[in-house]
Amino acid sequence: MKEITQVVVTAVALAFVLPAAVVAAFSLGAGIPFIALLFLTVVLFIFFLDRREEAADPE
What is the pTM of this model? Predict the structure, then answer.
């Protein structure tokens, strides 16, 4: 994935998906642990995606 695509995907996720998930978590009563797990999942996904791209394109 190109850098600009990563930026666009991240911006869309931060602007729409994560706030919607936070509202849903509090509406369903899951609260803070669910939100912490959600953010941890996003961080790990971005980290491993970046590692995979570095391994494929070692410059």
Answer: 0.47
Nearest partner of 1 among 59, 55, 50, judged by Cα: 50
Q: Compute the Cα dihedral for 22, 27, 31, 37 and give only its sign.
A: negative
Judge whether 55 and 26 are in contact, CB under 8 Å: no
pLDDT digit string (tens) for 12-40? Answer: 877 887 788 778 878 888 778 877 887 78
The pLDDT of 38-56, averaged and rounded, is 77
What are the backbone angles phi and psi of residue 29, rounded to the nearest 5°? 85, 10
Helical ranges in 3-56 per DSSP H: 3-12, 18-28, 32-56
Tell me the C-alpha distance between 33 and 30, whole Å: 7
